[in-house]
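chain below, 160 aa
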Amino acid sequence: MNKTTLVLLLREGEVLLSMKKRSFGVGKWNGCGGKLKGGETVRQAAVREMEEEIGVVAQPEDLKLVGKLLFYFKTTTEWNQEVNIFTLTKWQGEPQESEEMRPQWFSYADIPYAEMWPDDQHWLPLVLVGKSVAGEFYFNDDSTGFDKFTLKETLYDSVE
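prediction:
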């Protein structure tokens, strides 16, 4: 199972989401992140992916682990992944559009859930009120919903 990262930049009642412009998840709003590369920790990968995708720089220790979700895709098993979700409130630089992502700030009340992965509406509201989550999502045949899922609040001490 692929180990991946997802980072949500937060500021005063707003979350930064980015429109995915190519590859996996194209056409969906999401946080920044991606797969680990040779020998990286989850935090190192998260920092690298943010810089590549939206041009911001952060320190690994400033990432707050708020979720670990397992995703299972029925028809495309190579998409199965463990996603380590972080929030971040301290970074350098302004988010910029790249070839892969177009970032935009959203107020918590205006998050475009209809244009996101279907799991986001279940866990993201919990994270935005300061909760941490763990769960498993088993996508249906066309990945528009789930055959089943579990989600619970939890606490994390570290990522590795």
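Residues 2-154 form a domain with the Nucleoside Triphosphate Pyrophosphohydrolase fold (CATH 3.90.79.10). The mean pLDDT is 95.
thats it, cya
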